[in-house]
Design a protein that fits this description.
It contains nine helices and no strands. With 179 residues, it is mostly helical.
């Protein structure tokens, strides 16, 4: 029988097939990087599995019931907590996301935080290569993006004492300095 992590990896590869990141790399590299960082930091299999599929409900045709059947309640509940509700406006999505992650606890905070760290690292690399033109690749303005990162950071600093929060804080400071 396949392990939970193997099942999550299989689902992530199938669900994200053909999708690309802003820099043009296969999308699957992002959830794998998030999961690897969490595994290296000692998080358990359910958190690592959730990291592998953290964007599946929000960005693919996989349903919550399919995920729940394949990966169980803990993984699916973490993924639901870190998924945006696209029926809301951009700002309402982000406000609801922050509250959802906060309420869902440490597993969701870990997946969300490392997702934000990896995305910030990618954004900094994109900016180094392409300058301020990179902001046009996002569905928002630089100011809104920074607002969200700062609001997310404020919640995490208050809710969870973990060394990764400091790493994220340093990245948010670098994002703030971009033109």
């Amino acid at each position: 029988m396949m392990s939970l992590t193997d099942r999550a990896l299989r689902l992530a590869f199938a669900a994200h097939e053909g999708q690309k990141r802003h820099e043009g790399t296969p999308y699957i590299t992002h959830p794998v990087a998030v999961a690897l960082m969490l595994a290296q930091k000692g998080f358990g299999e359910e958190v690592v599995a959730a990291a592998l599929v953290h964007d599946v409900l929000e960005d693919t045709a996989v349903t919550e019931s399919e995920m729940r059947q394949d990966l169980g309640d803990v993984v699916t509940d973490i993924v639901k907590a870190v998924s945006y509700d696209h029926s809301l406006s951009w700002k309402e999505q982000r406000e609801r996301y922050i509250e959802s992650v906060h309420q869902a606890g440490e597993g969701a905070m870990a997946v969300s935080l490392v997702d934000k760290i990896h995305n910030a690292q990618s954004l900094l690399n994109l900016h180094a290569a392409g300058g301020p033109a990179i902001w046009s690749k996002f569905h928002t303005t630089k100011e809104q993006k920074i607002w969200f990162e700062e609001a997310m950071l404020a919640m995490l600093k208050e809710a969870w004492k973990h060394p990764l929060v400091g790493e994220y804080e340093a990245l948010v400071a670098k994002l703030r300095e971009l033109d």
